[in-house]
Amino acid sequence: MLSLLEERGAHYRPGAPLDLRWLAGGWSSHFEFREETLRVRTDFVARPPRIAPTSLQALWDKAEAERKPVPFTDVITLCELKKTNRERDYAVIGELARLIDDPAACLLLSRSARVLIALAREQPDLLDELVSQRPVLRYVPDGRDSLEVALDAERRELIHANERRLQSYMDAAQTWLDAWPRIAAEVSGMPLREAHAALVAHAEGRLPYQVQSAS
Description:
The protein is built from eleven helices and three strands. By secondary structure, the protein is mainly alpha-helical.
């Protein structure tokens, strides 16, 4: 990957080195290069938040079984990835949930009170089964107004949870970020693989591989 990026004249942006020791801990690596008149930014992450390792492995296994050159996420996984601290992503989740045929997955992901109430009427036993996984479902019997208030509160808590996760990485990276301007100036103009080796040497001891409080 570094060779391909180097061929395009890529350079590092602030982030972790593209090294499995950091990627395994949920860190991400960021690059930028020019493609004709376009400025292209690329991000690499090996352990995306909210996705279990078994689900990640299944993604690659499915791609191999179906001989897909590049694996891609299914709708359910994409919904989990979209549980960020950006308000607009929850509208995206709502639209994606409309594409899901499985009633259980829809109950766990839909952002529409109307849809959840309709599903609960059709699948009351399933609703009871899933309340422990998504507590907001306990408000379904209370009607649309109460459920919409609960959905809003759920959204805010998901946003805050992601803010806490990001802050844990920011706190862990503070020493690295403080040193970044000097390190970036040092490697400026180097071929990417040479710059990468220098970044790794500087990151060791400054950027922890794991962030204990991250979820």
